[in-house]
Design goal:
The complex is a heterodimer.
Chain A (H helix, E strand, L loop, with lengths): L12 H12 L14 H5 L10 H9 L3 H5 L3 H4 L5 H5 L6 H14 L7 H16 L4 H12 L4 H13 L13 H14 L3
Chain B lengths: L1 E6 L9 H11 L4 E5 L17 H17 L5 E4 L2 H16 L1 H12 L11 E4 H9 L1 H7 L8 E4 L22 H8 L3 E2 L13 H4 L1 H17 L4 E4 L2 H9 L1 H8 L7 E3 H8 L17 H5 L36
Parallel strand pairs in B: 1-2, 1-3, 3-4, 5-6, 5-7, 7-8
Chain lengths: 193, 328
């Protein structure tokens, strides 16, 4: 499985970061092909909240500015709408590059705001425990930790969801939980470093 | 009866129960027979991919492996949720595009006695099946109660038409499939400019103000075009636009009351199926008034549980204007 583990042969250390991000992205990222046209940022519905537009972020990556790129809030504001992806003249898998940058930022603890990484982690914890998502547990844990002040304004919605039977208080567990755990444990060992 | 393997995804049993109920009600009239993927697991939504790669793809692929075992003749898996549809399609596509990913995922799957060869299955969305396999002519034949006089905003969201690996849709940004289906049901379909714009996805949980703005854009546009209801094909879109509409109204001091329904609910109504069997009444923003225009009575809502009010003896609070739309 050594083929997947990232090893750079490039003598230029600045280029290694670009290579690493690309290698860790599922599919063929084509990140190297970016021509800095800015179509991505112009198409992005949440770019106003981003530290860098996707184009700027890709420029940071190509400049080898690892810390600046991984601490940017940009990937965390990506809503996975794929507008940039279908408009990119170079077919860069932009949304998937954003996923890669999130996972690298978590691994190196470079994210600035914990809300989004915590939400993802809590969601994943539920899935790894039950095999299904568990909205009630997820919402309770997440809101208590990150939006305690928002809870009063959320209460009518939560009660509405419960009274309309749109949220289960107890989680559902799949039958093959042992099988899923075995698969995920092995998958984690195989994860690209 | 056309047989398909069906991947429901977590929301169909909970927040999108109305989607599930209405889909089940229209399957037989549409000549569809769905067999659920046995013991399917969550697809990881957009969360697992942001944490890891091989585990995220292994999680998705367990479903593909289970579904591939079940295929008896038909190799098509139908998903009703846009995020599930994209994740399944993406895993299948990327494992073929980059065989090393497929190999790693298969090493992991082997621990659970499973395997999956990329390309074995076709992954398709429910709307795609209804449009392209059932066909609009067959749909029209079944319409007994045309939705005459109901103005609908067809809202497709992002993950069905994009990235569209297999080029199944008429356009990435302005596809007409949902419009055509709703027209076949007799509804008055508005030319909705934001039909594939984002509902905010998980931003309602992470950066609420970002999400509220995306929700506001969609609802105000539908309202501007005088839509009676917005129609979605995705549990996440429905949840964001319906359940967070109230908070969005509070944030912008607006007063939108746009009902958000699933396309299967409208199919059911046009087929003359009673409202109760279609999960109507589960929406938080009531569709009662909108649907009364076409003579449909939304089942009596269950008694509303109101949060306890504060005693009126506290300090007086300034009143905020609620009916004025904030000018930005």
């Amino acid at each position: 499985m050594a083929a997947q583990v990232f090893r750079s042969s490039d003598p230029n250390p600045n280029l290694r970061f670009l290579e690493e991000v690309s290698a860790r992205t599922a599919g063929v990222s084509r990140l190297e092909m970016c021509i800095q046209c800015g179509t991505c940022g112009g198409s992005c519905p949440s770019s106003v909240d981003m530290d860098h537009t996707p184009r700027m972020l890709f420029a940071l990556i190509r400049a080898g500015l690892r810390e600046a790129a991984l601490s940017s809030n940009t990937p965390w504001y990506c809503v996975s709408c794929y507008h940039c992806v279908v408009r990119c003249p170079q077919d860069v898998h932009i949304a998937d590059v954003m996923y890669t940058l999130k996972s690298m930022a978590i691994q190196e603890k470079l994210y600035k705001e914990a809300t989004a990484p915590d939400f993802s982690q809590t969601f994943v914890d539920m899935v790894e425990t039950y095999g299904r998502s568990y909205e009630f547990g997820l919402a309770t844990r997440h809101y208590l930790k990150h939006f305690p002040l928002r809870m009063p304004s959320m209460a009518p919605m939560g009660l509405g969801m419960l009274s309309k039977k749109r949220m289960d208080i107890t989680p559902t567990r799949i039958e093959g939980m042992d099988q899923l755990k075995a698969i995920l444990t092995r998958a984690k060992e195989l994860e690209v470093v | 009866m056309k047989k398909y393997i069906f991947y429901p995804g977590c929301a169909m049993d909970t927040s999108a129960k109305a989607y599930n109920e209405s889909m089940q009600a229209v399957l037989a009239p549409l000549g569809l027979d769905f067999e659920e993927v046995h013991d399917w697991n969550c697809c990881g939504a957009t969360e697992y991919l942001g944490i890891s790669t091989v585990p995220a793809y292994a999680l998705i692929s367990r479903n593909l492996a289970l579904a591939a075992r079940q295929t008896n003749g038909d190799r098509t898996v139908v998903a009703s949720c846009s995020a599930c549809y994209l994740n399944l399609a993406k895993a299948d596509y990327y494992m073929a595009e980059r065989p090393s990913l497929g190999e790693l995922v298969n090493v992991a799957l082997a621990e659970g006695g499973l395997d999956y060869t990329p390309g074995t299955l076709e992954i398709r969305h429910l709307l795609d099946i209804i449009i392209n396999e059932v066909g609009l002519d067959a749909v029209k034949e079944r319409v007994t109660h045309p939705l005459k006089g109901l103005r609908v905003a067809p809202y497709l969201g992002c993950m069905v038409p994009r990235p569209d690996y297999k080029k199944r849709w008429s356009d990435y940004e302005y596809p007409n499939e949902l419009d055509r289906l709703l027209k076949a049901l007799g509804a008055e379909v508005i030319d909705f400019p934001l039909k594939t714009h984002c509902c905010g996805g998980h931003m309602t949980q992470i950066s609420p103000t970002t999400a509220f703005e995306l929700i506001r854009r969609l609802i105000s546009s539908a309202d501007h075009h005088k839509a009676d209801v917005m129609v979605t094909v995705c549990p996440m879109c429905q949840l964001n636009l319906d359940a967070y509409q109230n908070e969005t109204n509070q944030y912008f001091h607006t007063n939108y009351k746009m009902p958000i329904l699933f396309f299967t609910q409208l199919i059911g109504l046009a087929f003359g199926i009673e409202a109760k069997k279609l999960g109507l009444g589960r929406e938080l923003v009531s569709a009662r008034e909108a649907l009364s225009r076409i003579g449909v009575e939304v089942p009596q809502e269950e008694p509303e549980v109101k949060p306890r009010r504060k005693k009126p003896t506290g300090l007086p609070m300034p009143k905020m204007p609620v009916n004025e739309e904030k000018t930005l």
